Automatic annotation (TrEMBL):
Signal peptide: none annotated. InterPro entries: DUF433 (IPR007367), Homeodomain-like_sf (IPR009057), WH-like_DNA-bd_sf (IPR036388). It comes from Gemmobacter nanjingensis. It comes from the Bacteria. This is DUF433 domain-containing protein.
Length: 201
C-alpha cells in the first residue's frame, strides 16, 4: 500500500490529533514509511490514504478506548478494502452484534483526502529557481503560504479564482491544506505568505 500522506496531512484530513496517529504507530497498528517528500525534499514519514477512514472511525467517542487488538482488526479490514475516490465506504463488521458504518463515520473525509492528494500532486511544485524552492501552484509564483494567508485574512476561494482565473479551485484548496500541514520552519526569508503576482514563468 503506497505511503501517500504525511502524518500532519493525515491528521488534518481525518480530523484527529497527531498524538492519536503516533499512538497508533507506536502500538503497531499503522506503519509510517520514511520517504523523501517531493516538494520539501526532506525525509518524512508517510501513511497510506486508507489511514484517513481508519483514524476518523477510531476517533469516534465510543471507539477511542477499544483494545489495540480490535483497532488492528478495523485497520486490517479498512486497509484491505479497495478504496476508490468516489466509492462509498463499506461497513466493517466487528462481530455478530457490532457493525461500523464507515461511510457515515468517514466517507466525506476520505473523499476529501482523495481530492487533496490528487490536487497536491497535480498542482503543487517546488523548484530551486522559483522563490528558493518554496512550494507554489504549478506555472505560477503563487506560494501555498500566500494562498493560506489570504484565506485566513478573510478572502474566499471564490475570490482567489476571480483574481487568478487560470487556476482551478482544487489547486487553491490543496495549497491551503499543504500550507497548514507544512508550516514554515525557522525565520522565513522574504515574506512568502504575502500574495505574489501569479506570473507565468
Amino acid at each position: 500500500m503506497p505511503a501517500e500522506l504525511t502524518i500532519n496531512e493525515a491528521a488534518h484530513l481525518a480530523g484527529v490529533s497527531t498524538k492519536l496517529i503516533e499512538k497508533s504507530v507506536e502500538s503497531g497498528i499503522l506503519h509510517a514509511e520514511r520517504v523523501t517528500d517531493v516538494l520539501t525534499r526532506r525525509l518524512t514519514r508517510r501513511l497510506p490514504l486508507a489511514a484517513v477512514p481508519f483514524l476518523s472511525a477510531i476517533n469516534d467517542e465510543w471507539l477511542r478506548d477499544l483494545p489495540v487488538k480490535r483497532k488492528r482488526r478495523i485497520w486490517t479490514i479498512v486497509s484491505r478494502n479497495r478504496l476508490a475516490a468516489e466509492a462509498r465506504l463499506a461497513e466493517v463488521r466487528l462481530n455478530e452484534t457490532i457493525t461500523l458504518d464507515l461511510e457515515g463515520m468517514a466517507g466525506t473525509r476520505t473523499r476529501l483526502a482523495y481530492a487533496y492528494r490528487a490536487a497536491r500532486d497535480a498542482y503543487l511544485v517546488a523548484e530551486d529557481d522559483i522563490l528558493g524552492g518554496t512550494p507554489v501552484i504549478r506555472g505560477t509564483r503563487l506560494t501555498v503560504y500566500s494562498v493560506l494567508g489570504r484565506l485566513e485574512g478573510g478572502d474566499t476561494v471564490a475570490d482567489l479564482v476571480e483574481d487568478y482565473p487560470g487556476i482551478p479551485e482544487a489547486a487553491f484548496l490543496a495549497a491551503a491544506t499543504y500550507a497548514k500541514t507544512h508550516p514554515l520552519r525557522g525565520r522565513p526569508s522574504g515574506r512568502p505568505w504575502v500574495p505574489d503576482a501569479a506570473v507565468r514563468h
